[in-house]
Design goal:
Length: 217
């Protein structure tokens, strides 16, 4: 098996993508645990905060995959990238999209439907595992079969596309969110570090409301 390149050796956009994958999986872990807690002990305020947070998390995951499908994979295909690797990525996205939509619709019932929390917990565990597997596959392909045509120019184009198409609220959410999962030697993967520092407390307040004490895990 080919060793994965070090974090520091990756293009800046690639570093940011790895942090995004990590943050998505971490948040799905926390959603699952919180939903289980709400199913056992209903809390209207926590349910509403969790529902609001999932609205943002769902948009982030969907936008991330849409950006890859609309810009990154077509760009690599034009450059002659490995077709089997690209097909794997788009196929996994299609499967995830269906499950994400069902999960998101279930979350919208929090606070109104007494059964929503238990159903959300039931759906989140396999969704978390599916997303983690996809992220691992994507990271392997980006450093493997897709690497020969994946250069800094492509990453910069992808980053520009993502900024252009992102909801405006993500401009303060994303830097702080990515920073929250970055290790000391991974800070170079966090875009706009001053913004991340400025909105750290703002993000933590919303995560504390949604996840309670679990927001630090």
């Amino acid at each position: 098996m080919t060793a994965q390149p070090s974090f520091a050796s990756l293009a800046s956009g690639h570093r940011t993508m790895l942090l995004a994958h990590r943050a998505m999986v971490r948040d799905l872990d926390r959603v699952a645990r919180t939903a289980e807690g709400l199913a056992a002990a209903p809390d209207a305020e926590r349910a509403e905060a969790l529902r609001a947070y999932i609205e943002k998390l769902s948009q982030i995951i969907e936008h991330h995959h849409e950006g890859e499908d609309e810009f990154l994979w077509p760009s690599l295909r034009r450059l002659g990238a490995d077709e089997a690797a690209l097909t794997l990525m788009t196929t996994e996205h299609d499967e995830l999209a269906k499950n994400l939509r069902h999960w998101h619709e279930t979350a919208r019932g929090l606070g109104a439907d007494p059964s929503a929390a238990a159903e959300l917990a039931r759906l989140t565990h396999p969704l978390r595992d599916e997303l983690a597997r996809h992220a691992a596959d994507e990271e392997r392909e980006l450093s493997g079969r897709l690497a020969p045509v994946l250069d800094e120019k492509v990453w910069k184009g992808f980053a520009a596309h993502m900024r252009k198409t992102a909801p405006s609220w993500t401009l303060k959410f994303m830097p702080a969110w990515l920073s929250s999962v970055a290790g000391p030697d991974e800070r170079s993967g966090v875009p706009a570090p001053p913004v991340a520092a400025l909105f750290k407390g703002w993000l933590e307040k919303r995560q504390r409301a949604a996840f309670g004490d679990d927001h630090r895990s």
